TrEMBL record:
Transmembrane segments: 16-49
Domain of life: Archaea
Protein's name according to its UniProt entry: PEP-CTERM protein-sorting domain-containing protein
Keyword terms of this UniProt record: Membrane, Transmembrane, Transmembrane helix
């Protein structure tokens, strides 16, 4: 797997956003939960965009 090719990072980055968003969402603090939910939505929409491309 060559991480320098542009297609590989386009597939990995949405998953990282979803993972970080989930971790922030489960932390019981309202600010981090809101940020986590936002990152989850952003990562999911980015993933769907990349999937349809």
């Amino acid at each position: 797997m060559d991480l320098t090719s542009p297609g590989v990072l386009d597939q990995i980055e949405p998953g990282i956003l979803i993972l970080v968003g989930f971790v922030l969402f489960i932390i019981p603090e309202p600010a981090t939960s809101a940020l986590g939910a936002g990152l989850l939505l952003l990562g999911a929409s980015w993933w769907v965009y990349e999937w349809g491309r």
